[in-house]
Amino acid sequence: MTFKVDSNGYYGQYGGAFIPEMLYPNIQQLKQSYLQIIGSSAFQNEFQQLLKYYVGRPTPLYFSHRLSKKYGTKIYFKREDLCHTGAHKINNTIGQILLAKYMGKDRIIAETGAGQHGVATASVCALMGVKCIVYMGSVDIKRQSPNVARMKMLGAEVRAATSGSKTLKDATNEAIRDWINNPEKTHYIIGSVVGPHPYPDMVSRFQSVISQELTHQLEFLEGRSFPDYLVACVGGGSNAAGLFYHFLDNPKVTIFCVEAAGHGVNSGKSAATTQLGRPGIIHGSKTLLMQNADGQIQEPHSISAGLDYPGVGPLFAHLKDTKRAHFRAVSDRDAMLWGLELSKMDGIIPAIETSHALGVLESEKFNKDDIIVFGCSGRGDKDLDTYINYFEL
Amino acid sequence: MNNRLDGLFKPNKKILSIYFTAGYPRINDTATILRGLQKSNVDLVEIGMPFSDPLADGPTIQSSSTVALKNGMSTKILFEQLQNIRMDIHLPLIIMGYFNPILQYGVEKFCEECAQIGIDGLIIPDLPLQVYEQSYELYFEKYNLHNIFLITPQTSEGRIQKIDQKSKSFIYMVSSNSVTGSKNRVEDKVLSYFKRVKSQPITSPKLIGFGISNNQTYRTALKFADGVIIGSAFINFLDNNSIEDIGKFIKSIKE
Questions:
Q1: Which of A336, A340, A358, A276 is closest to A311 using CA atoms?
Q2: CA-nearest residue of chain B to A161?
Q3: Which of A50, B5, B120, B181 could be a cystine partner for B60, CB 3.0 to 4.6 Å?
Q4: A68: distance to nearest CA of chain B, Å?
Q5: Is the pLDDT of residue A219 over 90?
Q6: Assembly ipTM
């Protein structure tokens, strides 16, 4: 069993590149060059320097004494919330902006839901002095105004996606349309392990710095290079793909993926894609996706904009089919309470996406000596309004 | 059973193909629009199956798709509407749709249904050539449906040759590398692309689409191809005019 992408861009039966002919040359160029560019020492030197001095890596592996005591097991957090711009997203945008530079592209487009990937893209474009256009659903522009302001300060142009549901899925459609219209000098920085091959693999590789560091940190702290459990929230799946990357082939590591149940998995307002979805095509990739009987893509719901995606990276559809990972879903309400719990117990206000992962502390049984590593994918600054309104703070 | 596309292309004959979104403006307009187009002497019709996320389409077709879906259009309903269409519609008919609804319906079942109704070809913009060859070509062959491929200004000569070889009918030339409905005149860059493709040894007939909206762009495109395809401009027309006036629109394009 392998969990790496095959030569045709598939994870098991999922993945591929279901793209219109208009995008064929772009995707082909990317496919043919990404491994070579990423593997070159010039690229790696620049990438590692930027990860260290710009992003602030390595991020700590933090042991939570109070949560460990309360839940009777050993709980660690991999602190991606401490990355520059406040989430793991920047690991990928640093990698892709360098790749764009090596491919001679001088115009960057991106999609964003909550604005985290948009801010991470706008930041690296400012860093490189490259034109940046971020597509964002008009509904999201209204509910995430601080991130819109950040992107503007960083010199990016924020364009509203006004089609369909006016959220992340539609922003992605608009970005793809922009790429069709501007095929030559534009690179599209996708924010998650979704989209046509080679994006899922490429983004996973850039995020794999998370699990690489974790290997060394566990060795140092626990005298062994792997944990018993890894737990991450999954929307598209980029932080989870990064956290799991070096452990997927190690059967001693049990993996939990936590999706957003929204109001409840069967409430009609949920984003638990692997439970509610069927195989289909979204944004150029074959994967599990939420759709009606006719194959029309459905709107997901989650209180956290970062998990509000009707599909999931093809790797995760494969992890689900092969049962390599266990999938759980945590409701809006429970996620909010776990966010409060982590704030009170550890002094860490997490992104609401991240809070979902903590749900396994209640749903699963862990032993005293088990080592559990949570992906602390982002910080909660961007969610303060949601926390304030929810808890009437 | 003959495929109506086979007899369509003749030397010196210029083809006008019209695209419309099924279920738009109203759910039951499909047959009425088809009759109006036949009466107006168009040569070929593309029936668009609406999709929630039409990646290759511009705002006009996107919003017609959204309305059509709100009206309740679905693959099943479209097939019901087309059930007896061959009693009075003799034009070649193509269904254009994104791959996911077809995949969910079942690709073979979809092809079988199309053949039974009398559909002659399919355009599935997000079904890549390689996947088609590997997994679905056999169904198209079995049910005598022609798969129509796209080429764009960025398509390499080698790939155009490959597509030409696979093509059983015409090649759909995307006139600018763009989503539908985004241009209203033919740019110089596009003209040089038309010339480049015209000079290549392509055996399939070529229709130019994406960006044809009026008599001027129509006439320019005809110099380089066997015909044109009009979509967004026709949808825009339906927004402001009655279906009975389709003839006027066709006339305005042709002269």
A1: A276
A2: B59
A3: B181
A4: 45
A5: yes
A6: 0.94
For residue A3, tell me if it sits in a domain. no
Closest by CA to A192, choosing from A229, A158, A232, A239, is A239
pLDDT the model gives residue B135? 96
A173: which chain B residues are within 8 Å (Cβ-Cβ)? Answer: 53-55
For residue A225, what are the contacts with CB-CB under 8 A and spacing of at least 6?
Answer: A215, A216, A218, A219
**B61-71 pLDDT, tens digit each:** 999 999 999 99
- How does the average pLDDT of chain B come out, rounded? 93
Question: What are B's interface residues with A at a Cβ cutoff of 8 A?
Answer: 51-56, 58-59, 62-63, 66, 69, 74-76, 98-105, 125-129, 131, 149-152, 154-156, 159, 174, 177-179, 182
Q: What's the domain count of chain A?
A: 2
Residues of B with a catalytic annotation lie at 46, 57
pLDDT at B193: 87
Same-domain check for residues A262 and A149: no
CATH number assigned to the domain comprising residue A165: 3.40.50.1100
Q: Which domains does chain B have, with CATH numbers?
A: 15-254 (3.20.20.70)
Arithmetic mean of pLDDT, A156-176: 92
Q: Average pLDDT, whole number, for chain A?
A: 96
pLDDT band of B177, cuts 50, 70, 90:
low
Instruction: Indicate the pTM of the whole model.
Output: 0.96
- Residue among A241, A310, A242, A238 at smallest CA distance from A274: A310
pLDDT (mean) for A154-182: 93
**Is A283 part of the contact surface with chain B (CB cutoff 8 Å)?**
yes
pLDDT tier at B192 (50, 70, 90 boundaries)? confident
Q: Name the nearest CA neighbour of A92 among A213, A250, A200.
A: A200
In-domain check, residue A2: no
Q: Collapsing DSSP states into helix, strand and coil, what is residue B195?
A: helix
Query: A351 with A61: CB under 8 angstroms?
Result: no
* Closest to A351 (Cα-Cα) out of A80, A166, A150: A80
